[in-house]
Write a structure and sequence with these properties.
heterotrimer, A alpha+beta, B alpha/beta, C mainly alpha, A: Peroxisomal Thiolase, Chain A, domain 1, C: mainly alpha, Non-ribosomal Peptide Synthetase Peptidyl Carrier Protein, Chain A, 48% helix, Thiolase-like (chain A), acyltransferase activity (chain A)
């Protein structure tokens, strides 16, 4: 696929209670802290002033946090809403929240939990936060599929009106989680690597 | 490189028929699929009508030629995907580069529900990650194996637009010459999980749903699967394709986790993007297969978006969910097949139980089955939770 | 009404709000008030069922009952059959 139109301009990895931006560790939290404590601390560190964060499920919180860090100091605000899209993937879909919701069904089923029993709600939360209205797709696959992500993102950038695309992997199951998100742009900013599967794979392991 | 993407065939299993022909017959006979629950066991049995596929798992397993203990989601998927393949006339699947792209939202939840109960009693004894075939992706793998698809497979999970998004992705696989054939659509079985969940959202109608009717009070859940077979130019030349997938659009409504924005911003953007991509003007669309769930919120948002885009002259419209119920991740696939057949054969499907004009919009859905229309272009809308809005356009071959 | 405020905060996971922040007559759903949404309204219906054994079956009743903490409290005292 022609990748001249697509560059990787930034990356964020959230893993083992550490946050990396463009390959560098920018913040870390007590490695023994539970995921919920870590996410709250990360929210205080990188955002605040968005009370709806606390209502989200873990998948949405993690994706939302990664987008928060990725988009900060980028030029994404210069794009029109329809020019920013999302392409995310994971292994467990929304299983982590499915179990939590199922626990509530016996007594008082929670509508606020049920709305998160779909993996693409994280893309909705990110879109609401930043006003992104471009194309969205969520794939479920066994592991981070760098070929799929680079091919499809390149094609989206080449054949649609998208000028920016958030691409990545947002996986959570109980206390285990792994988030990698890339900012893909039509111009060579920041990291400015051509979008290829090899580059995505290398950045994915760079933590 | 293929310039165009062609629809070579399609298959459907739903609450109104075990195959496409029997679904068509139900439309002709005006026989919607909602009834009291027969196959799912739920405390809501007497409360909410549903459009179940009218067969137990043993019967479906026979039809699918798969073991009975497999998730119903996989059985439905296999039956519709095989029908789609056989209708294409392409013959031996192993001679092509084929992809299978399937949308779904519940995965093997029907089987997993039983496991959850045990797991929650004793979490340390459970092996949650090993729940066989829960994850949406493994349903796709099972069916792809059975079909003999080896080149590429993908699972898309974007709520109720999953099936439509599978066609979008499939179309791009063909255009970028990664494969020559794509079987694309979606599947979802009815489960207690989704029934309870939609109940907590208070958007289930206790009677048969009334899409685009002023008195509508919610949706009925359904189940099923629907797939099209998409092919490249070179393969299309060897068969008689039904039509082309000439355009598609997807947008995020960026408004709320589950509710549509009041003016249907995402709906409008998706339909507009689909028209732009196919190079069409709104008045060239002959018929729209609506998302039309029957909830207050969806129908007014979709209606206003259509009004904004199409006024003053509106295409014929109807919601086939008034027959099949809302089949969630399958709906985009099922309605893609109905829409592709509509442009091929000039069919308009009826919108059951429409009586009262909605006050917000100036157009009304078709209430009768009719044929003989000369449609050049037909649109199919699928809008999902998470703000994920998709619109597909099928055009005459 | 302070108990009710604490229950609302817990049910809706309003981590950055304390009972003192919520006025008895403050609109719960408008932007000037707490800015709650339709899913919060459904959670409040669950709250009434869970804590007060009051069932609301018509979501259209929500806006009236859930206008403010005071309107909720009045509805509860008028409809409560079993002490929570």
């Amino acid at each position: 696929m022609n990748s001249e139109l697509a560059h990787i301009t930034g990356s964020v990895i959230i893993s083992q209670n550490k946050v990396y931006k463009d390959g560098e560790l920018i913040w870390e939290h007590d490695p023994k802290a539970e995921i919920s404590v870590f996410m709250r601390a990360a929210y205080d560190q990188f955002s605040g002033q968005y009370p709806k964060f606390h209502k989200m499920d873990a998948l949405s919180k993690l994706g939302w946090l990664a987008a928060e860090v990725l988009v900060k100091d980028s030029d994404i605000a210069t794009c029109k809403p329809e020019e920013v899209g999302l392409l995310l993937s994971n292994r467990s879909s929304s299983l982590d929240t499915d179990v939590r919701y199922f626990e509530t069904v016996k007594e008082f089923a929670s509508p606020a939990l049920f709305v998160y029993t779909l993996p693409n709600i994280v893309m909705g939360e990110i879109s609401i936060r930043h006003g992104f209205k471009g194309e969205n797709t969520f794939f479920v696959s066994d592991s981070f599929d760098a070929d799929l992500m680079s091919n499809y993102a390149s094609q989206l950038m080449a054949t649609t009106s998208l000028k920016r695309c958030l691409v990545g992997w947002v996986e959570v199951m109980e206390q285990q989680y792994e988030v990698t998100m890339f900012l893909i742009g039509d111009k060579a900013h920041g990291l400015a690597q051509p979008l290829t599967a090899k580059a995505l794979t290398s950045l994915y392991h760079n933590k | 490189m293929s310039e165009k993407v062609w629809i070579a065939g399609g298959g459907v299993i739903s609450g109104i028929g075990l195959n496409l022909q029997s679904c068509l017959q139900s439309f002709r006979d005006n026989k919607p699929g909602m009834t009291a629950m027969q196959y799912l066991s739920s405390v809501h049995r007497a409360t909410f009508p549903v459009a179940e596929v009218k067969a137990d798992n043993a019967t479906l397993a026979d039809l699918a030629r798969m073991p009975e203990d497999i998730s119903r989601t996989a059985l439905l998927s296999m039956i519709a995907a095989r029908e789609a393949w056989e209708s294409s006339g392409l013959g031996d699947i192993s001679q092509y580069r084929v992809a299978f792209v399937s949308g779904n939202t519940v995965g093997g939840m029907d089987k997993t529900e039983d496991f959850f109960t045990e797991y929650l009693k004793n979490p340390s004894g459970g092996r949650l990650r090993q729940v066989v075939h829960h994850e949406c992706g493994s349903i796709t793998e099972l069916v792809a194996d059975m079909l003999g698809v080896r080149h590429h497979l993908a699972t898309i999970s974007t709520a109720c637009s999953s099936g439509a998004n599978a066609l979008m992705y499939g179309s791009r696989l063909i255009k970028s010459n990664q494969v020559d054939v794509v079987i694309a659509g979606g599947t979802d079985a009815l489960t207690r999980f989704t029934l309870n969940g939609f109940n907590t959202l208070m958007i289930l109608d206790q009677q048969a749903c009334r899409p685009f009717d002023e008195t509508r009070t919610g949706l009925n859940l359904g189940e099923g699967a629907g797939y099209v077979v998409m092919v490249s130019d070179s393969l299309a030349a060897q068969i008689q394709p039904w039509c082309r997938l000439s355009g598609f659009g997807n947008a995020n409504d960026a408004y709320h986790q589950t509710a549509s924005s009041p003016d249907g911003t995402g709906n409008y953007l998706a339909m507009k993007a689909a028209l732009d991509r196919s190079g069409l003007q709104p008045q060239q669309i002959g018929y729209i297969n609506l998302h039309g769930t029957g909830t207050q919120n969806n129908d007014v948002a979709e209606g206003l978006a259509i009004d904004k885009l199409f006024a003053p002259s509106f295409p014929l419209v109807s919601s086939t969910k008034s027959f099949t119920g809302h089949t969630l991740g399958a709906s985009g696939g099922i309605e893609a097949v109905f829409s592709a057949l509509s442009v091929k054969e000039g069919i308009v499907y009826p919108n059951a139980r429409f009586m009262h004009q909605m006050k917000e919009i100036p157009f009304a859905p078709e209430t009768q089955f009719s044929t003989g229309h000369n449609f050049q272009h037909v649109m199919s809308n699928s809008f999902g939770f998470g703000g994920n809005c998709s619109s597909l356009i099928f055009s005459k071959a | 009404m302070n108990d009710l405020k604490a229950q609302i905060i817990e049910q809706l996971n309003l981590q950055e709000v304390t009972p003192e922040n919520i006025g008895n007559d403050q609109p719960l759903f408008s932007k000037e008030g707490l800015g709650l949404d339709s899913i919060d309204a459904l959670e409040l219906i669950v709250l009434l069922q869970q804590h007060y054994n009051i069932r609301i079956t018509n979501p259209d009743d929500g806006p009236k009952i859930f206008h403010s903490v005071r309107s909720m409290a009045e509805y509860i005292s008028a409809n409560q059959t079993i002490q929570a």
